């Protein structure tokens, strides 16, 4: 379930995540920095107070106990074993002992930080006077020197933490702003692509999304989108062209059928009902043939590559030739020693050879030759008849849906004109080609398909 306060924009999400992470990291760094600065200042104060204490103790000699150091910042006290102040510097005079308890024999030098209620903390060093000096001046009673200094205002008033917190917040804000700008600059091409996509409609598929330079993911997305739009544009154009031609082809027989039925209703006494029914059946058969061809074309266009399997073209060429028992004879010649295997849909490839053989037998005078061989990485199947051939200007037109040349309409009046178009679509779906090439006599249809290894390489790209 999405969080209600989660921002929708990727830019905002990235900036928020960057802000949270940077705040956590910088807070940890700031905490460590605060401890390091405090430790450094305290260490410096310990060294200074130790120096003051040891210098005063070193001055205690035969001439007696010298006056305490007179530095205005130094808090120095001489205390006895009951922790009573014997003498003190001007800054520490009249005050209670700086610390307690009294230093023991085993730890004669101690560093302490004392924080009296309501007062500034004192960083001090407690040094026990040497036994020789204690016997000389106080009859062996232990004495100690407390030397301290008040913490600097930077530490005592928590200004250090305040400055570090302000620095952490400023750096977090700067990092968040930089992340926002960087993410916005990165996503700018995505916004441009989105704006352009919103302008694209089915009525106008000529627009393309802007392609940023480089090879990053956004550039690849733009190139993939434009490639998809190219394929979609071609597909929509083909569908529109196909739909217009189908509607044109179906309109004529349906209009004729309606006219015949209306005449049969209006002129019942003058119309033979059986003849009307026979004519209607022939018309519906033609419509059904067109619809069946249309469904076959749709299946070829939507067939998945997962349905493909290894197919031996030599085998299906011989099987299809053997099945053509009517009409002129069909001869198969194999020009490849190790067989010709491709990756494809066996049923669809058999349909291609069937249509090519039916077309060749329809126009041949005495024979049809089928030649199966190889050319580089392609399998080549040639269907050659000895008929009148196809004029160069019509060699591409014959593959258009519902296009039927004059000789074709004469030889097969009931044809739909979709056979060769279906063959071309099947060849394209198998990453191959189908074309009409030059021939000394008759029509020469050449089908080229990638061999098995080459086809598998194309599918893995």
TrEMBL record:
Recorded superkingdom: Bacteria
Record EC number: 2.7.13.3
Subcellular location: Cell membrane
Coiled coil: none
Domain named Histidine kinase: residues: 245-453
Pfam family, one: HATPase_c
Keyword Ion transport: no
GO molecular function, one term: kinase activity
Transmembrane segments: 15-37, 162-180
Keywords on record: Kinase, Membrane, Phosphoprotein, Transferase, Transmembrane, Transmembrane helix, Two-component regulatory system
HAMP domain boundaries: 184-237
Designated name of the protein: histidine kinase
Organism field: Microbispora hainanensis
